[in-house]
Amino acid sequence: MSNQIRKFPEGFLWGGAIAANQAEGAWNVDGKGLSTADVAIFKKGLSKSDYKKHNKVDEEQIQQAMRANTAEGYPKRRGVDFYHRYPEDMALFKEMGLKTLRVSIAWTRIFPNGDEEEPNEAGLLFYDRLFDEMKKHDIEPLVTLSHYEMPLYLVNQYGGWSHRIVVDFFVKFSRVVFDRYKDKVKYWLTFNEIDSIVRHPFTSGGIVSERFDNVEQAVYQALHHQFVASALAVKYCHEMIPGAKIGCMLTKLTTYPYSCNPKDVLKASKNNQFNMFFTDVQVRGEYPRFINRLFKEKNIHIEKQLGDDELLKVHTVDFISFSYYNSLVATENSEGMETVSGNTIGGVKNPYLEVSEWGWQIDPIGIRISLNDLYDRYQLPLFIVENGLGAYDKVEDGKINDDYRISYHEQHFQQMLEAIEDGVELMGYTSWGILDLISYSSSEMEKRYGFIHVDQDNDGNGTLNRTPKKSFYWYQEVIRQNGLKINDEPNGDTF
């Protein structure tokens, strides 16, 4: 066997990804307002895989969070202090060789309540400094406009994204940041995992279930408003930043049938079709006809304003980005079967896959399948903007030997290469949690994704010192050679 280097396309955007609400901290600094993320608490004692209880936010929790003038008990308020330590982090990213860094702009740093007449200059200046630091290190920003952090004021005052007026507030926010950073940011994303509003309505859409008689109606109406807001963001991005590229973002939930029973196959097919509904609207510019049956059966009526359909049709995205962590299995009858969860969704356990310490099934071949499915359907450039392994890391003699993380990424990179050989146009890859940060799903720290260790525990104790892990140097070499050392054996079946 040889150790040849199998190359990725020239100009491939190797990078990492973080979100403002999980990394920045500084929740009450420089005029920042409260966001939905500032309500999230770490619920000790819950099962790692009980994502529904971890993500449940009720009226009492919101009221308590509004009264709590502290970060204690609210991990996302403290993050990992990226707000103050970004120059140090950027130097490490430069050392690693990152070509791009995916970040989000906290809406509440720019408009603390969301509906102010004028933006908060201190918030705008922070991102000026951040993007300037990235440019200094030749790191291309990939910026998400909305990443699970809408202003809490808009939730309480208007019912979150269920109210049409929030479209106007978001468009104003988008136009302000497009104008401010037009010379600094070329790549943009609209809504992080826009499909997630159907799984966690509060985090994604500011929908508090107790405040609505028909939550599903509110959720799908809010989703329509996000579709419209996304189309308008695309419109203004293209007008205000010539040459910029703006994409959508999907949670890729590739589902396999548990068996060849036609009922299992149909169920898996319907799940995959529904997963593509969200990209259909943003890429093809219209609601797919199959969704009409779901709306009819659930008695959901989407209120549209005159011109909405034209906006969706005309202002479609330039590329498709997505997260991929695991695949799912569907069966018509799951009674008595072992179940697992991953990325806020559960399902039947796939007996052919390993499971992470948090119960997420590890399926490298699934990323190839996902890439092919998306490209076959849309023929648009694809960008993997979240992928990685959440795991416990042990610090021994000041070092973290995370071979399990290296193995995870190596297997997924091999399948990405296979997909490129299949003909998929893949722009780049940003590993989730390039440095350790607060978990979205459980608000804990010990679930670590990073190539860089951050010294902090679940209760916020620690120095916050940054330490490269073994995987840091492995990823550094992958980026340096823009490829992967492989043996002569093929990785997966060929057509």
Automatic annotation (TrEMBL):
Keyword Ligase: no
The enzyme's E.C. designation: 3.2.1.86
Keyword line: Glycosidase, Hydrolase
Superkingdom of origin organism: Bacteria
GO molecular function: 6-phospho-beta-glucosidase activity
GO BP of this protein: carbohydrate metabolic process
Reactions catalysed: 6-phospho-beta-D-glucosyl-(1->4)-D-glucose + H2O = D-glucose 6-phosphate + D-glucose
InterPro entries: GH, GH_1_N_CS, Glyco_hydro_1, Glyco_hydro_1_AS
Record has Kinase as a keyword: no
Pfam families, per the entry: Glyco_hydro_1
Annotated catalytic residues: 386
NCBIfam families xrefs: PRK09852.1
Entry similarity comment: Belongs to the glycosyl hydrolase 1 family.
Name under which the protein is recorded: 6-phospho-beta-glucosidase
